[in-house]
Amino acid sequence: MTDIERLVRQEWAAVDGDRRITVVDPADGRELFAAPVSAPTEVEAAVHAARSAAATWARTPAAERAAAVHRAADAVAARADDLARLTTLEMGKPLGDARGGVDAGVGTLRQYAELGPVHRGRSLNGGIAATDLMVYEPRGVVAAITPWNDPVAVSCGLIGAALVTGNTVVYKPSERTPATGWLLARILSEHLPEGVLNLLLGAGETGSLLVGQPVDVVAHVGSTATGRAIARAAAGRPTKVLLENGGNDPLIVDADVDPEWAATQAALGSFANAGQICVAVERIYVHEAIAEPFLEALVAKAQALRTGPGLAPETQLGPLVDRRMRDHVHAHVEQALAGGAKLLVGGEVPPGPGSFYPATVLSGCNDDMAVMREETFGPVAPVAVVDTFDEALERACGGEYGLAATVLTRDLAHATRAWRELPAGTVKINNVFGGAPGGAAHPRRASGQGYGYGPELLDEMTQTKVVHLGTPPR
Q1: Angle between helices 389-396 and 412-421 (to 10 degrees)
Q2: Where is the Aldehyde dehydrogenase domain (predicted)?
Q3: pLDDT tens digit string along 329-371?
Q4: First and final CA of the chain: distance in angstroms?
Q5: Is 278 a catalytic residue?
Q6: What is the pLDDT of residues 190-245, one digit of tens each?
Q7: Which of 105, 176, 289, 417 is the residue whose CA sits 20 to 30 A from 204?
Q8: Whether pLDDT at 3 is above 90
């Protein structure tokens, strides 16, 4: 656990310098290890190694690249328990959820390994004496900067899509889950040629140094602030930027649904992974016709959650990733209460070690409150009661984010109107989570830009060339 190393040009070595970031167990506050921080020279070396390997990897037949990713996926599956345990130790999510994230990462790697060889261009109808083609080519070096809340699944998606399309990768996992990122890179690299995958370690400074290098793609999933900083740094340069910056996802509860069922959906969307999900429910608009039984049921579900360390089998609500995140969440709750919201359950920082925060339900919230306007990223369900579906939809359409939204309704006209009008990349009707595999959407507004998932991510990782093959005169 203490020998976390960086990977450059297929060589694992200790990070240069003495800088370290202390990682603690969010369940009890004990120090797990001191993670190293890559020096500026190592950032340059990693990008240079990826650039040196890019031409050879791009020329490698697509089927061979896919086979390598398939082998890597099998290796990740074989170490799934180890990766899940590290994830839980570092960021606190219940072990079963962490294992689900690893399994999702394995599935994504296998999906891209299958899609890579068939990701091809098309022929065009030109003159009879010529052939015209549109072909996809890798962009070159991809900087993959990934988050802590689902570290394996997200990393596998970005890395897998980059590799099967012939790109090389410089990978920087979050400083909050460095051991998980290190182990994942170690497993993947064993099945890849030298320089194709390189690992850097550190926080925002390391990420800034990486973005400042001559990379061809920056693919980032994380906070809005970091995403905006990346966009500014890449402005004016020929760098493709893919961003998922998080959101402030609304949930609309219509008058005609069962309030108990709606509360189950709301609790899942608000409290899963302690609310630390990019597409978590962040604000709820419930019709006044069912508001009272809905709130009663939501409070009961919050109270019923079993809180504890993520490694405990009975735990349903683990700690937040660290106390800095807990301070942020509690500040949103306190500001809402000061602004007139009513606390129905939770809302108090518990005594003792760790960074636990209770499942919290607030009523009487308005859209000027930070808890309704910004990304809280904690187990908080802020509720506003509305008089009509029209009011709910209008308020759900507000704000600066546009990642996802959910509508619970039995009215087909309401559902259709909602998915057409909501300015979000993903709209879910009657399920807060779920959907067919391979779905991909463009986040809107401050939530980012570009495809981050699905087959369309392969398009983002490549660039198109038009080829005209004419014939000389006889």
Answers
A1: 20
A2: 14-467
A3: 999 999 999 999 999 999 999 999 999 999 999 999 999 999 9
A4: 70
A5: yes
A6: 999 999 999 999 999 999 999 999 999 999 999 999 999 999 999 889 999 999 99
A7: 105
A8: no
Farthest CA pair distance, the chain: 88
- Candidate list 42, 90, 244, 282, residue with the active-site label: 244
How far is the C-alpha of 127 from the C-alpha of 1, rounded, in Å?
63
The residues near 430 (Cβ < 8 Å, ≥ 6 apart) are 265, 407, 408, 409, 415
CATH number assigned to the domain with residue range 6-245+447-467, chosen from the 4 options 3.90.930.60, 3.40.605.10, 3.20.20.150, 3.10.310.30: 3.40.605.10
Identify whether 244 is a catalytic site residue. Answer: yes
| Domain range list for the chain | 6-245+447-467, 249-429
- Look-up of token digits 């962490």: 98
Give the pLDDT of residue 14: 74
With a cut of 80, say whether residue 472 has pLDDT above it: yes
CA angle 151, 152, 156 (to 5 degrees): 120
Q: What is the dihedral of CA 195, 105, 172, 190, to 10 degrees?
A: -30
Q: How far is CA 240 from CA 31, 113, 151, 286, 288, in A?
A: 38, 22, 22, 40, 46
**Letter for the amino acid at 378?**
G
Measured over the CA atoms of residue 172, residue 173, residue 176 and residue 179, the dihedral's sign is negative
Helix, strand or coil for residue 460? helix
pTM above 0.85, yes or no: yes
- pLDDT single digits (tens) 149-166: 999 999 999 999 999 999
Residue 100 DSSP label: H
Structure tokens at 101: 């994230």
Length of the chain: 474
How many helices, marked H, and strands, marked E, lie in the chain? 15, 22
Residue in 42, 90, 175, 278 annotated catalytic: 278
Alpha-carbon Rg for the chain, nearest whole angstrom, is 23
